């Protein structure tokens, strides 16, 4: 298998080529810019490429593109893989089928819609309001009742020390009764 590149043309044609060399151009200075460049061997777009109705594209590696324009930036091209057809006997012309390779982490998606998902229309809800007139009257309590005591006078008062002494006696008698 051979790997190469596919470059979309200005018309509906696509240019296919094999990568011969990869260059890294480094610009020295404060910024330190680097650029990758592919040197490619291009196939003839007239007789060297045939398109099937199914969408497959075949290239003939023996037919070269005549114009000298070998360099391309990686951002301008797609990666393709060339797979030769299996033959029982050799032919004068050999054809390879092209398979576009999707790089890892990249997904082919449709055009991104710029429409907002949420509607910008605000629903103006008019609520019905019923105003009820309420009159308030103050009432004064003139009753002669005495407040009820919270503590029952018949209850006996235990201080904290008396309570602890009773608890100690109770726990001491329980432990010796066994």
Topology, element by element:
Blueprint: E1 2-8, E2 14-27, E3 33-42, E4 49-51, E5 57-59, E6 71-72, E7 78-84, E8 96-100, H1 160-176
Antiparallel strand pairs: 1-2, 1-7, 2-3, 3-6, 4-5, 5-8, 7-8
Put simply, the count of helices is: 1
Spatial strand order of the main sheet: 4-5-8-7-1-2-3-6
H/E series: EEEEEEEEH
Mean pLDDT: 78
- Separation of termini? 95 Å
Q: Find the structural class using helix and strand composition.
A: mainly beta
Task: Give the strand tally.
Answer: 8
Q: Bin the strand percentage.
A: 25-35%
Share of helical residues? under 10%
Question: Quick one: overall form?
Answer: elongated
User: Which runs of at least 5 residues are low in confidence (pLDDT < 50)?
Assistant: none
Descriptive report:
It comes from Brassica oleracea. Residues 25-96 form the DUF4216 domain. This is DUF4216 domain-containing protein. This protein has 178 residues and is mainly beta. It has a domain at 2-100. It is 10% helix and 29% strand. The chain is built from 1 helix and 8 strands, in the order ββββββββα. The chain has one helix at residues 160-176, and strands at residues 2-8, 14-27, 33-42, 49-51, 57-59, 71-72, 78-84, 96-100. Strands 4-5-8-7-1-2-3-6 form an 8-stranded antiparallel beta sheet, with no helix packed on it. The longest helix is centred in the last third of the chain and has 17 residues, at 160-176.
Notable characteristics:
8-stranded antiparallel sheet, DUF4216 domain-containing protein, DUF4216, 178 residues, mainly beta
Summarize the structure.
The chain is mainly β.
